[in-house]
Design a protein that fits this description.
Elements: E1 4-13, H1 19-36, E2 39-45, E3 48-56, H2 57-69, E4 73-84, E5 92-98, E6 101-104, H3 107-114, H4 127-141
Parallel strand pairs: 2-5
Antiparallel strand pairs: 1-3, 1-4, 2-3, 5-6
Length: about 150
Amino acid sequence: MQNLKALIYVSTAAEHIQAMDVARIIERSEENNKRSGVCGMLLYSKGQFMQCIEGTTMGVEHTLGKILQSCLHHSVVELFKGEVTERRFSSWDWAYYSGSTKQFSSPEIQYFLESRACTDPVQKNHIEQSILTTFWQGSADSNHFWTSR
């Protein structure tokens, strides 16, 4: 059995990014991630991206290399990088929030992000969920959750 690795980062979208661009990024990411054998979640909210990538060390590192070279965002900050015991995502999930519009790849992802059920993430080994839900819920509750501009 190969070791699994997870990576969570946040970045600032390039100034020119529009809703249609985010849709294309989601579509392209799904295709690329299947080829690399990684899965995870991409969140977009108010000019910020947060992404969780899970897979083999080689798959995650390959994907990270492509992310760092992308002109679609800047100021990439790694928030978590380490081994995990299991995948939290079995496919490619996403959520989008802009203004009053929220969209989710599935009802399960909406519950994952908006439920406050994970009250002790460290004890339950759900640090990844804690990071992702904090970003999502913080962006919905205020105009700026994270900014690097």
